[in-house]
Amino acid sequence: MTAALEAAREAAERGEVPVGAVVLGPEGGVIARAGNEVEQRRDPSAHAEILAMRAATAVLGTRSLADCTLVVTLEPCPMCASAMVHFRLGRVIYGAYDPKGGGVDHGPRIFEQHGCLHRPEVIGGVQEQENALLLKKFFITLRETRDF
């Protein structure tokens, strides 16, 4: 989670929503790392999880991440959870819960759907307070610096 939090902090410094993700290989080492790049790329799909999984498959030379773990600072949204299904991700570990936008333990609960083709192991709430505080501070600062 430490590496994911660092990627999230770097994303915040670039003006991105501070979400960071790392993919751990079968031996537990970091094989890919990313922070959100939605604003930078002007691409609403450039979430940290998707970028990290894409990078991991490129490193491994495969399309499946069945023996890998994704560690991410925020509960994945439905789009990212659905991508995890197609990447055949083995495990996802996430930090802060996202009752409004989450797609794993909240919202549509993608992995619990009857037609879900693959269900990774899920561990949520890891360093939850630290991850949630990073997001909260980012949005407080954003509101203070923007005229709405």
List the helices and strands and how they pair.
Elements: H1 2-13, E1 20-24, E2 30-35, H2 38-41, H3 48-60, E3 69-74, H4 78-87, E4 91-96, E5 121-123, H5 128-145
Parallel strand pairs: 3-4, 4-5
Antiparallel strand pairs: 1-2, 1-3
Tell me what the structure shows.
The protein has 148 residues and is of the alpha/beta class. Helix content is 39%, strand content 18%. The N and C termini lie far apart (34 Å). The model has no long low-confidence stretch (mean pLDDT 96).
**Overall shape:** globular
Kindly name the structural category.
Answer: alpha/beta
Q: Strand portion, in percent? A: 15-25%
Mind telling me the C-alpha Rg? 15 Å
* Secondary-structure element series: HEEHHEHEEH
The largest β sheet comes out as: 5 strands, mixed
Low-confidence stretches: none
Helical content (DSSP H or I, runs of 4+): 25-40%
Strand arrangement in the largest pleated sheet: 2-1-3-4-5
Q: How far apart, in Å, are the first and last alpha carbons?
A: 34 Å
Rounded mean pLDDT is 96
Number of helices: 5
> How many strands in all?
5
Search tags:
148 residues, alpha/beta, five-stranded mixed β-sheet, 18% strand, globular
Q: How would you briefly describe this protein structure?
A:
The protein is an alpha/beta fold and 148 residues long. Helices cover 39% and strands 18% of the residues. It has helices spanning 2-13, 38-41, 48-60, 78-87, 128-145, and strands at residues 20-24, 30-35, 69-74, 91-96, 121-123.
